[in-house]
Amino acid sequence: MHEFDLQLSQWQQLSEADRRANFGQVLRYFVSPLVAVDWIEPVKVDYQQTVLKTYSVWLLGEQFLFIPGQPAVQLGWSAGATKLTPNEWFAQSNRPLKADEGIVLTNQDAVSDYVNELTSDNRTVNMPALLVAQAAQPIDWLAQGVYTLVNGQFSGNQLFYRQYQAELQNLLYRQRESQSAYFESRHLIVKPLMQHQAYQVFEKINLSELALKQTLHQQGFDFVSPDQYEWLKGAGTTSLWVAGNHLPTANQLMHQSFGLDFDGQRRYELTNDPLVYKGGPCVTGGRYQLEQVLPTSPFYESGLATQVIEDVQVPRQYRRTIPIVLE
Questions:
Q1: For the chain, what percentages of helix, strand and coil (3-state, to nearest 5) are there?
Q2: Whole-angstrom Cα distance, residue 306 to residue 227?
Q3: What's the whole-model pTM score?
Q4: What is the pLDDT of residues 208-234, one digit of tens each?
Q5: I want to staple 298 with a disulfide (CB 3.0 to 4.6 A). Which of 100, 157, 185, 230 is the partner?
Q6: pLDDT tens string 97-140
Q7: Which residues contact 264 (CB under 8 A, 6 or more apart)?
Q8: Is 312 a residue whose pLDDT tops 90?
Q9: How far apart are the C-alpha atoms of 321 and 196, rounded to whole Å?
Q10: Which residues pair with residue 241 across a beta bridge?
């Protein structure tokens, strides 16, 4: 395995056999032998209006995607509102506010200052290859493995399974006719994986961000970095949103770069910088459409202090990742 082969431009040129061989080496050398590995398969995902051929794998009960590295990625935003039309600067949302609530934008300079204040600075970053979870999870969920219906086997943290086997089996029996997206018991949350005839099993946890980070480190994972978040959500876009520099439509917001799910307007996503949260809801009232959709930009940063989020228990989520860096 050569680091050059894990760069996006070269990865796209490899044969399927060579991509598979390189991915096998990534799993061998960068995934802890204590982590259960399931369901390795080739997948095709969107990257800048092209198709990226890569691999999906389930690690300890979560789906991960391999994203090749990319040198000199442009991140951040400093153009304010100059790319938006005047009509977009002041377009009203459907959220009624009193005159003394929220913010009032009066001119282009005020709109530009608002956008620049709530987006990260421009920078150029060499992005390593990544194994990254397809979706972020709520901060009080910890994936522990998958339970397969066909053979009744659990693949994942066996110490956890021995402790909660009876509770899991009782929960599955009670919910065997359920059509819910997930169901729960005292210690567990279970999500059906119909395509695999299996269940994704989470443990309910109550950990501080630091304790959660330490738990992930013990398994060989980390949170995404702010740079990695922007790259993964934006796929290298140089516009304010993935869809361009104009207020995105609902359909445009559904686009998923690299096949990753970013639920950025309901929860703040933790990063490996304890002072930086990505995504999250509007924090300035929401009088304008711009306020409502700016949090969907890859470069959005609310600026809320860590202690504020900790104190009021704002909904947060995290995404496991493994950087693939060859020494």
A1: 30, 30, 40
A2: 18
A3: 0.91
A4: 999 999 999 999 999 999 999 999 999
A5: 230
A6: 766 677 888 889 999 999 999 999 999 999 999 999 999 999 99
A7: 233, 278, 279, 280, 295, 296, 300
A8: no
A9: 23
A10: 244
All residues at 6 or more sequence positions from 158 whose CB lies less than 8 Å from its CB, including other chains: none
The SS3 call for residue 19 is helix
In angstroms, the CA 118 to CA 300 distance is 6
Q: Are the C-beta atoms of 198 and 214 separated by less than 8 Å?
A: no
> Phi, psi at residue 186, to the nearest 5°?
-60, -40
How far apart CA 253 and CA 241 sit, in angstroms, is: 9
Within 8 A by CB and 6+ apart from 303, the residues are: 117, 118, 283
Q: How far apart are CA 209 and CA 206, in angstroms?
A: 10
Q: Is the pLDDT of residue 58 over 80?
A: yes
d(CA 61, CA 147): 9
Specify whether the CB–CB gap between 1 and 58 falls below 8 A: no
Q: Please determine, for residue 304, whether its predicted confidence score (pLDDT) is greater than 80.
A: no
- What beta strand segments (E) does 140-197 contain? 141-148, 153-156, 183-184, 188-193
Rounded to whole angstroms, the Cα distance separating 206 from 323 reads: 26
* Per-residue DSSP letter, 69: B
Where do runs of H (alpha helix) occur along 156-303? 158-174, 209-219, 226-234, 250-253, 289-293
Q: What are phi and psi of 287, to 5 degrees?
A: -65, -35
Q: For residues 244 and 293, is the Cβ–Cβ distance under 8 A?
A: no
Amino acid letter for position 243: A
> What is the reported pLDDT for 101?
74
CB-CB neighbours of 20 under 10 Å: 14
Q: How many residues appear in the chain?
A: 327
Mean pLDDT of the chain: 89
- Output the pLDDT for position 314: 77
* Cβ count near 234 (within 10 Å): 23
Query: Cα 110 to the chain's mean position, in Å?
Result: 31
Spatial contact of 318 and 269, defined as CB atoms under 8 Å apart: yes
Please report the pLDDT score of residue 307 as a whole number. Answer: 47
For residue 225, how many other CB atoms are within 10 A of its CB? 19
